[in-house]
Design goal:
- Helix content is 44%, strand content 15%.
- By secondary structure, it is an alpha/beta fold.
- It has an eight-stranded parallel barrel, surrounded by four helices.
- Strand 2, helix 3 and strand 3 form a beta-alpha-beta unit.
- The longest helix has 20 residues.
- The radius of gyration is 18 Å and the shape is globular.
- The two termini are 20 Å apart.
Length: 270
């Protein structure tokens, strides 16, 4: 198996476990040996997180700033929180300048509102009205997309390449010129430099391999996983984390099918 053009590991940890992870013997050495990148979820602007970023900067490990919002603001980027995403980016920019942090790129995670998902998992089905209202509200979709487009332009002006982490069906929407599913789920289409398709076979067992094999062929980059960790949602049936055999299988499939980079969703360990 040939090595992928670039291997990137996601990590979505609070400050204490993040520090513990990168303090483990050999972790940073392994990243250097693999010439791998780290996409770090920016959960806060604390000193501990800045220290880990500086460590990776010093060792020459590229770090992607994976933008996230507080959970009460929806966590991921979507139609409902475009102004909050703008405010959060400027806070991130000030923190980065103050702490002298170097970033290889900005990562924008486009997913539904975490609060709406949580309501549905708790069988609060009145939340469904929000989904259907968006189907008829093209104005909100257009306005939110315009805000995000302006935000990406600001990121570019600040010298950053922008990656988007996208649900796999967004590529189909783009191909046929539709926004129906995007509006239904509250998603936005942004002008990213690299689109990373989230192709997690562990979420789609037993057909996940097929989803990966099909959509990786046309994606700029493929994200595979999940090996454990991530966001805890009350009421969600927890999927069994990928075994090493499953992970290595998906890595081979992604490397064979995708012409771009491979991102490994390994939130708690590398």
């Amino acid at each position: 198996m040939t090595s992928p053009a670039q291997l990137t590991f996601f990590t979505e940890l609070e400050k204490k476990p993040l520090t513990a992870l990168f303090s483990e013997h050999g972790v940073v050495d392994q990243l250097v040996a693999l010439k791998a990148s780290v996409s770090m979820g920016i959960l806060d602007f604390c000193d501990e997180r800045a220290e880990v970023v500086r460590l990776l900067n010093t060792r020459g490990v590229p770090v992607i700033a994976w933008q996230l919002l507080p959970k009460e603001k929806g966590y991921w980027y979507h139609l409902n929180n475009a102004p909050d995403a703008v405010d959060r980016y400027y806070q991130f920019r000030e923190w980065s300048l103050r702490e002298n942090l170097k970033w290889d790129a900005i990562g924008i995670d486009i997913e539904p509102d975490i609060n709406e998902i949580q309501q549905l998992l708790k069988r609060q089905f009145r939340a469904l009205s929000n989904f259907f209202k968006r189907l008829w509200n093209k104005k909100q979709f257009e306005e939110s997309c315009a805000i995000y487009q302006s935000l990406v332009e600001r990121m570019h002006a600040d010298g950053y390449m922008v990656q988007s982490y996208e649900c796999f069906f967004m590529a189909d929407e783009r191909k046929v010129g539709s926004s129906l599913l995007n509006r239904l789920f509250g998603l936005v289409d942004i002008p990213a430099d690299k689109r990373v398709a989230m192709l997690y076979s562990s979420y789609f067992r037993p057909v996940g391999i097929g989803v990966l094999g099909i959509y990786a062929q046309t994606a700029d980059a493929a994200a595979i996983g999940i090996t454990g960790g991530g966001v805890d949602l009350e009421g969600l049936e927890h999927k069994q984390p990928m075994s090493w055999d499953e992970f290595s299988r998906d890595l081979r499939i992604a490397n064979r099918c995708c012409h771009g980079d491979v991102h490994a969703v390994s939130y708690t360990h590398l």
